[in-house]
Specification:
Largest sheet: 6 strands, antiparallel
Shape: globular
Oligomer: single chain
Number of helices: 6
Strand order of the largest sheet: 1-2-3-4-6-5
């Protein structure tokens, strides 16, 4: 059976109620659309709809993609926090999987950095970091802790009113007590903690490292070197002399190579 690998045409209606109004983005393993839901009472609501891309010839890659996509849906549907997108529905049609969630009016921190083309204001970065700590603390303190494993500027959106939203739970995982290491090594190399390269099971401190690495990039406009590169990290104040000593110390502690030397929790 061949699956159509093009994005949905504008105007396509799914489940008799979600009409595709535009293609917002397409990258990695998913298409993102803006869709308008027509409700039984005649009112409408705008959502973001994520579709698993089925354009891989590699069956293993496709199966792994579908597993991670379902995992994201199952994680998000049970969560409720102001810094997480609200999920409305998850369904599959003709071999294509869809996740309908809150449409976030804003832009990613990476886009903010790209528009500015310079280090961002420390006061803004600290505000976003505190909100990120709040949502990480929520995730890490679930009955089965959820480790995000991919904290980076492109996975943190900021709305018009300054509220951050953590997006893309594709590689998040629940922490398994007594497990020595992760089955799959994943993460974005500049932001992944050393233990994410197969050395140990990731816990909350991997996300703390990712947040430190994110702050490093936002405050310097330079991504930090990957954890596996033996060269010492360039001090932040070399790129941005305006960063305060307290913030530098916090980022350095969050990014300690030995996770026992990092903050023990996001709180």
């Amino acid at each position: 059976m061949s699956i159509d690998t093009k994005p949905l045409a504008l105007g396509t209606v799914l489940k008799s109620k979600y009409r595709v109004s535009r293609l917002v983005a397409g990258g990695g393993m998913a298409w993102i659309y803006e869709v308008v839901e027509r409700r039984p009472d005649g009112t409408t609501r705008t959502w973001a709809m994520k579709e698993l891309r089925a354009d891989s010839d590699d069956t293993h890659t496709l199966e792994e993609g579908r597993r991670l996509f379902e995992q994201e849906a199952h994680i998000l549907v049970h969560l409720s926090h102001p810094n997480l997108p609200r999920v409305s529905a998850y369904f599959a049609i003709d071999g294509r999987s869809y996740l309908v969630m809150e449409f976030i009016h804003g832009e990613s921190l990476l886009k903010k950095l790209e528009h500015t083309q310079a280090p961002l204001l420390e006061s803004l970065v600290l505000g976003w970091a505190i909100q990120t700590c709040d949502v990480l603390n929520y995730l890490h303190s679930r009955p089965q802790p959820i480790i995000f494993r991919d904290i980076k500027p492109s996975n943190i959106m900021v709305t018009m009113d300054g509220c951050i939203k953590l997006i893309d739970f594709g590689i998040a995982r629940t922490y398994k007590v007594g497990k020595n290491r992760d089955t799959i090594t994943m993460g974005s190399e500049n932001f992944a903690a050393p233990e994410q390269w197969g050395k140990a099971q990731t816990d909350a401190r991997a996300d703390i490292y990712g947040l430190g690495a994110t702050m490093y990039q936002l405050l310097t406009n330079v991504p930090p070197l990957p954890a596996f590169v033996p060269t010492p990290r360039v001090p932040m104040q070399q790129y941005n002399p305006a960063v305060t000593d307290q913030t530098v110390a916090a980022v350095e502690k969050a990014m300690a190579e030995n996770r026992d030397e990092r903050y023990p929790s996001a709180l």
